[in-house]
Amino acid sequence: MKSIIIASTSTLHGGSYLEYLLPTLQLHFKNCKTVLFIPYARPGGISHEDYTKKAAEAFASINIQLQGIHEFEIPEKAIENAEGFFTGGGNTFLLVTQLYKNNIMQLLAEKVKNGIPYLGTSAGSNICGLSMQTTNDMPIVYPPSFQTLGLISFNLNPHYLDPDANSQHMGETRETRIKEFHAFNSIPVLGLREGSWLEVKGGKITLKGNLKARLFKQNETSVELETESDLSSLK
Questions:
Q1: What pLDDT is recorded for position 221?
Q2: Within 13 Å of residue 165, how many CA atoms lie on the same side as its CB?
Q3: What is the DSSP letter of 183?
Q4: 137 is catalytic
Q5: Residues 16, 153, 159, 232: which is the catalytic one?
Q6: Hey, how many other C-beta atoms are within 10 angstroms of the C-beta on 231?
Q7: How far is the CA of 14 from the CAs of 11, 17, 58, 78, 193, in angstroms?
């Protein structure tokens, strides 16, 4: 049975890394002594080692050991033997490129679909959808495909921001860019605001957190979804 947490962000304003999610993660990974961390989304400024150390400190507070996939000589074996997965944020183009380069995109999807618990934040959440085409990130590298894990039957836009009526910024809003996506694609898109996440248990998908999410469908008016909304039938 699938067991997935898909979070908009790792850190809320004024909080520490993963702090707001720790009670949820303690239950989510309750059967795991160790979790495999995938730091591939981080493009620079922090090494894979330092990124893993930061995440490991948060997991240590719930008595779980975190180990980075970069520490393994053969990434496929690390995926095969993992008790749980955490894919952190950064740049989704880089993350997807590295998952394909290391030949683990399909393997990771299979393991999660077969019940290995997964946590994604930001870029690690983007890859849970059918494609990465609704990411906010710049295309700093060119992945071989935009297709991702397909753990849910729609796409995500983490860090979703509402238009600010008082702003003088005249560029595109997130809503505008999602509508541009829908000019060529029919996949629904869920805008996840900071502090919100999806809980996937088997075939059930539930919106969690303190904020609503915004759902976009092709040729339809976008709608607000309340916390605890059931998105299981969304496709």
A1: 97
A2: 0
A3: T
A4: yes
A5: 159
A6: 20
A7: 8, 10, 16, 34, 16
Listed in order, strand segments (DSSP E) in 101-212 are 118-121, 155-158, 189-192, 196-201, 204-209
Tokens of 152: 């849910």
Reply yes or no on whether 230 is catalytic.
Answer: no
From 3, 8, 10, 122, active-site residue: 122
Distances 91 to 43, 112, 125, 150, 189 between C-alpha atoms, Å: 7, 22, 11, 18, 19
Helix (H) or strand (E) holding 38: strand 34-38
* Three-state secondary structure call for residue 163: coil
**123 membership: H or E segment, kind and range:** helix 123-126
Q: Which of 137, 182, 196, 229 is catalytic?
A: 137
Q: Is the dihedral of CA 231, 196, 220, 218 positive or negative?
A: negative
Q: What is the pLDDT of residue 169?
A: 64
Q: Which two tokens stand for residue 205?
A: 């998908």
Which residues of the chain fall short of a pLDDT of 50?
A: none
